[in-house]
Design brief:
The chain is built from 20 helices and 20 strands. It has 589 residues and is an alpha/beta fold. Among the domains are: 169 residues, inorganic pyrophosphatase (n-terminal core) (Alpha-Beta Complex); 105 residues, Diaminopimelate Epimerase, Chain A, domain 1, CATH 3.10.310.30; 129 residues, Nucleic acid-binding proteins (OB fold (Dihydrolipoamide Acetyltransferase, E2P), Beta Barrel), CATH 2.40.50.140. The protein is globular.
Length: 589
């Protein structure tokens, strides 16, 4: 069951259309994304990298730049401590290559997902001390590592934290929140309450980019040089870490994707080649669902250092070998994920967990690096917050994925006495806890749950109720102005009621795609529709609603009574040089 609703946000769409040379439909789509006011619309449509905010606006940026510039001059060894996902890998690349370009004695350490867990820990600090490291710079981690960073300070080290995760806090008896901060020499995170930086939604690599932009300026390089060196990496990380594609993120990704197509980075060139991508047509989809998972796979099944080595590679033959290996790892990860999802669904159904507001799924034999992906897939199926738990040396590790109206980080704060470690965002989180606490954890989450029955219904937001008669190549071309699409700037969705299904057929290797010929009742116009979801489920739905005989007549292209209301995205199908209008069906009733 889904709740379909048409966005009813108001504005003078005709005036906006005339002002910016777009159609009223496109103006409505922009308003539906809460882009309000002429300046915001202009930036959304035509924003350039000149509009990225100055790095010096970030709290502690001046202190961090002064510290690191001094360490470079004094030839003090600097160690970057990153993270094992795509954001952490790109952030580490930006800091490592940037600091080295400025003459720093810099190296890196990316924690091992299984041995070290997330973020900087005492063992990493002790190794840095043993290696004679003077300064640690974290990226995509460190904001929650308060005891660890305080230990490093006790040992006489200099520490600079760059991060983007939520600021840790303690809930006081009166319900107020008291934020917590380590004794790091500088903390760069736009989410700090007293940080004046106006855009708070940067990923870890974008925060690292801001630091390098400041250091480049101090060293006499211009902003353009920082963009030339790092823009595509900030873009890849923004998409891969599923940040909202609005404001600065939209500018970084829009222009970073263009630069990715002509990147000078040998590793990225080889990865695009290994994935069979056309550099001239790279979209956020290709980064999020093709390239990005290959980078993430190294940190999941091997070591994230392999992905970083690819980005640092300058030899094409070596780059091709390493890119091929990352793709193979990702293929293996896909198979393991499918097995994990099947096991999780069986466990949920057998144990009756589906009735819980918050699903806590113990998959103790699952590779812990896959917990987050599996949690995401289970969330999609049941539309509930999900924590997937796996075995670890010190008890149990977990990864969570949430739904709207449920802040995972806030709910974990309320369970902190049951946990040994936790951190994350409203929509995703990681944690560790003793195995003996698992049932109490599940009970506490569900006792505290603020969710209502309505929260469990997937919401389908329709931008415009638009008959297929209005689909045109001109309108489709205008939709490209709204790209890149992703979280916070989703692909527009249109809808029409009561389309007659003139004919249908299942296509694809596993008959997993359904192709439909749809007729508009008002005009009799026919247009092809294609559904990439679960074609077998759609087939069963049609048979249940209209009967097997009607379904069979539909498949034979004979007169039938099958009608569907659809949510769709208009598209152009190009085949053997012929261009045909079609709609991509996203949802049906």
């Amino acid at each position: 069951m889904e709740r379909w609703f048409v966005a009813a946000k108001k504005a003078d769409f005709q005036a906006i259309a005339e002002k910016f040379g777009i159609s009223p439909v496109t103006a409505r789509l922009i308003r539906n994304r809460d882009i309000i006011g002429e300046e915001a619309i202009r930036e959304y449509l035509y924003g350039t990298t000149d509009e990225l905010k100055e790095p010096w606006l970030m709290k502690d940026m001046r202190a961090a730049a002064d510290i690191l510039s001094g360490k470079i001059r004094q030839e003090k060894p600097i160690r970057i401590v990153g993270d094992y996902d795509i954001d952490g890998v790109c952030a580490t690349y930006i800091l490592l290559s940037g600091l080295k370009k400025l003459g720093a004695l810099a190296d890196y350490r990316i924690p091992d997902r299984i041995r070290d867990g997330y973020g900087i820990n005492q063992a990493i600090i002790e190794q840095a001390i043993a290696d004679g490291i003077d300064t640690i710079v974290t990226c995509d981690n460190g904001i929650s590592a308060i005891p660890e960073i305080n230990y490093a300070k006790d040992m006489g080290m200099t520490v600079v934290v760059t991060d983007h995760h939520d600021i840790p806090y303690e809930e006081m008896p009166d319900g107020s929140r008291q934020t917590k901060r380590s004794r790091a020499d500088a903390i760069i995170n736009p989410k700090q309450e007293d940080c004046p930086y106006p855009f708070k939604l940067l990923c870890g690599a974008a925060v690292a980019f801001k630091l390098m932009e400041a250091l480049y300026e101090e060293a006499g390089y211009g902003k353009e040089e920082a963009l030339e060196d790092f823009l595509e990496f900030a873009a890849i990380a923004t998409v891969g870490d599923i940040m909202e594609l609005r404001g600065e993120n939209r500018i970084l990704v829009k222009h970073g994707l263009k630069k990715l197509g002509r990147t000078k980075n040998v590793g990225l060139q080889c990865l695009m080649e290994a994935c069979g991508l056309d550099p001239d047509n790279i979209s956020a989809y290709h980064v999020g669902f093709v390239m990005g998972p290959c980078i993430n796979a190294s940190g999941r099944l091997d070591t994230a250092a392999r992905a970083l080595q690819l980005l640092l590679c300058e030899d094409r033959a070596q780059g091709r070998r390493e890119a091929a290996q990352l793709k193979e790892l990702n293929d293996e990860r896909k198979n393991m994920t499918e097995q994990g999802v099947e096991t999780a669904v069986s466990l949920i159904e057998e144990q009756g967990l589906a009735k819980d507001d918050v699903l806590v799924v113990p998959l103790y034999d699952c590779h812990e690096s896959l917990a987050g992906i599996i949690a995401g897939r289970i969330r999609e199926k049941y539309h509930r917050p999900v924590f997937v738990l796996t075995d670890s040396e010190d008890g149990v590790k977990g990864s969570g994925r949430s739904i709207e109206n449920y802040s995972m980080y806030e709910e974990l704060v309320r369970c902190k006495d049951l946990l040994t470690k936790f951190g994350g965002h409203p929509m995703a989180a990681g944690l560790s806890l003793p195995k003996d606490n698992v049932e109490a954890f599940r009970a506490r989450l569900n006792e505290n749950s603020p969710l209502t029955e309505e929260d469990f219904l997937p919401k389908v937001s329709i931008d415009v109720a638009m008959p297929i008669e209005y689909v045109s190549e001109e309108q489709i071309a205008q939709l490209s102005l709204l790209e890149p699409f992703g979280k916070g700037n989703e692909k527009p969705q249109f809808a029409q009621k009561g389309l007659r299904v003139k004919s249908a057929r299942m296509i694809g290797k596993n008959r997993s795609v359904m192709k439909l010929l749809l007729e508009s009742p008002a005009s009799g116009l026919c247009m092809e529709g294609i559904y990439f979801g679960d074609a077998q489920k759609l087939d069963g739905y049609i048979r249940e609603k209209f009967g097997t005989e009607e379904a069979e007549r539909m498949y034979l292209g004979r007169a039938n009574h099958v009608e569907l209301s659809v949510v769709y995205y208009p598209d152009v199908n190009e085949y053997r040089g012929k261009r045909t209008l079609q709609i991509v069906v996203k949802n049906y009733q």
